[in-house]
């Protein structure tokens, strides 16, 4: 009897079990120890085969364009799966300005697990759950769960001598109403009591992910990571069988042209991701509007002795205040600062202007909106009206596609090309979920954690641009093309 090489490499009684497994299936109870050992050998053989296949595969060189919270989250989730890469593979983030230089360094960092709706529900839930895990993993100090209140603007009472405090007027919420909410406010109601609402300072989160990847030990032939400063100018590719295979990413740095070797490219450059229309030769249309808004940060308050006072951890979503044209969102942070956005007076930046790099290197705030926000907050908080001091005045843009849904998926007509952008006002809250989803899509060929179909980057691309995916006779398209 001739045995296969595998059977000859194991004890003879195991080899015999391999041959007789089919004919003795009714007597497997007598061979259960043998079957157990056989299963072990089968698992070992499968693992060895996978390892050999991985070793024989060419290295993958993945370039992520954009070092904001979205791009860095994609890179980090890819990096966490280093075992899925062939030897000598690499991950590179290409950034034109600085790490977390735009909204990721200037956003509020609020997240709410149950605030999703329809197709965004999974993004909210997975992102929220992942933040708690990742912030512990990365030792992020600014993450915490906190209650959230809806606060209507108020009018000064006509008889201040009989005025009750805000807490006295709302005894059922007195435990979560912050001490600094001691001015003129209207109706207060809870939006969340801290079970499914939380916050993080996004810049810290980005920097901690970047540090972890930069400081990871890379053994000989292992997955490497680097951050490259430069401005993307285009994509190189080779014509393949029905698609264009990514080979490189072109960029400029210090007025010189460079090229990064790439097998895959993921565009995650916030509102400026619409530049990719040109990089991919109009194979995909990415209409985008940048909503440019001002925000402010207050210094921690001081007590009568000049020492820093603690700031109660309750976030506020305030109603429209017609006096100032604001609808403030107020986020106290663990370091004692108070971040405020919802200031009103936003500017809307067109796709063509974004493609021309509008507000990429400089995004100035609007002084009149700073004044309005300061007045609105002073009306709500006597504490800050009397002793508050502004620390930061800034502006940034959130990226908004026409349907307010992100672009997440592949670029039609290309192999190894992906878009992850346009996450609207929830980009920070969704970042970990988006990172995992894109990592699965790139490494596994499909996303298991989320349904990405509603976020198809080509959903606004005209049929003439998207064509070529139907039947063909040679190179001639035959029948419907989609």
Helix content: 25-40%
Number of helices: 14
- Separation of the first and last Cα atoms: 56 Å
How many β-strand stretches? 23
Shape summary: elongated
State the oligomer. Answer: single chain
Biggest sheet architecture: 8 strands, mixed
Walk me through the structure.
By secondary structure, the protein is of the alpha/beta class. Helix content is 29%, strand content 25%. The protein has 14 helices and 23 strands. Helix 4 runs parallel beside helix 8 and helix 6 (121-138) packs across helix 13. The termini are far apart.
Features:
alpha/beta; 29% helix; six-stranded mixed β-sheet; disordered C terminus; 25% strand; 482 residues
Short description:
This protein has 482 residues and is of the alpha/beta class. It has helices at residues 5-8, 12-20, 32-56, 69-80, 103-106, 121-138, 166-169, 202-214, 276-279, 351-355, 367-380, 382-387, 427-444, 463-466, and strands at residues 61-65, 90-95, 110-112, 144-145, 148-153, 185-192, 197-199, 224-229, 231-239, 244-253, 256-261, 264-267, 289-298, 315-318, 329-332, 338-341, 347-349, 390-400, 407-410, 414-415, 417-421, 472-473, 476-477. β22 (472-473) and β23 form a beta hairpin.
């Amino acid at each position: 009897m001739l045995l296969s090489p595998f059977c000859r490499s194991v004890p003879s009684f195991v080899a015999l079990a391999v041959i007789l497994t089919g004919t003795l299936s009714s007597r497997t109870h007598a061979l259960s120890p043998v079957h157990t050992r056989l299963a072990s050998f089968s698992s070992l053989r499968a693992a060895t085969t996978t390892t050999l296949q991985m070793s024989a595969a060419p290295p993958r060189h993945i370039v992520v364009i954009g070092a904001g919270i979205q791009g860095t989250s994609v890179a980090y989730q890819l990096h966490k799966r280093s075992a899925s890469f062939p030897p000598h593979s690499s991950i590179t983030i290409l950034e034109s300005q600085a790490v977390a230089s735009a909204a990721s360094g200037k956003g509020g960092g609020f997240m709410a697990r149950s605030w999703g709706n329809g197709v965004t529900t999974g993004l909210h839930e997975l992102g929220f759950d992942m933040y708690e895990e990742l912030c512990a993993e990365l030792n992020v100090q600014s993450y915490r769960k906190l209650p959230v209140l809806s606060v209507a603007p108020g009018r000064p009472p006509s008889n201040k001598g009989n005025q009750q405090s805000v807490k006295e007027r709302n005894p059922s919420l007195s435990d979560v109403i912050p001490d600094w909410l001691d001015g003129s406010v209207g109706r207060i109601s809870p939006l969340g009591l801290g079970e499914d609402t939380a916050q993080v300072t996004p810049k810290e989160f980005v920097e901690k992910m970047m540090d972890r990847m930069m400081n990871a030990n890379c053994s000989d032939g292992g997955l490497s990571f680097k951050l490259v400063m430069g401005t993307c100018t285009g994509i190189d590719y080779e014509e393949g069988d029905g698609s264009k295979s990514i080979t490189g990413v072109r960029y400029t740095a210090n007025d010189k042209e460079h090229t990064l070797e790439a097998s895959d490219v993921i565009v995650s450059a916030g509102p400026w991701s619409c530049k990719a229309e040109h990089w991919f030769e109009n194979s995909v249309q990415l209409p985008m509007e940048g909503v440019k808004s001002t925000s402010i940060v207050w210094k921690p308050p001081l007590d009568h002795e000049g020492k820093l006072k603690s700031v109660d951890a309750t976030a506020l979503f305030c109603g429209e205040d017609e006096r100032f044209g604001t609808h403030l969102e107020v986020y106290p942070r663990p370091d004692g600062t108070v971040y405020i956005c919802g200031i009103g007076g936003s500017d809307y930046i067109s796709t063509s202007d974004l493609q021309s790099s509008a507000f990429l290197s400089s995004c100035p705030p609007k002084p009149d909106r700073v004044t309005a926000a300061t007045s609105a907050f002073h009306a709500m908080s006597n504490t800050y009206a009397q002793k508050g001091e502004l620390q930061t005045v800034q502006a940034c843009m959130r990226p908004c596609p026409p349907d307010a849904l992100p672009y997440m998926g592949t670029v039609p007509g290309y192999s190894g090309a992906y878009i992850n952008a346009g996450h609207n006002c929830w980009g920070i809250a969704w970042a970990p979920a988006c990172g995992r989803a894109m990592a699965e899509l790139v490494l596994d060929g499909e996303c298991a954690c989320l349904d990405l179909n509603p976020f198809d980057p080509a959903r606004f691309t005209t049929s003439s641009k998207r064509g070529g995916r139907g039947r063909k006779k040679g190179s001639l398209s035959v029948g419907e093309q989609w």
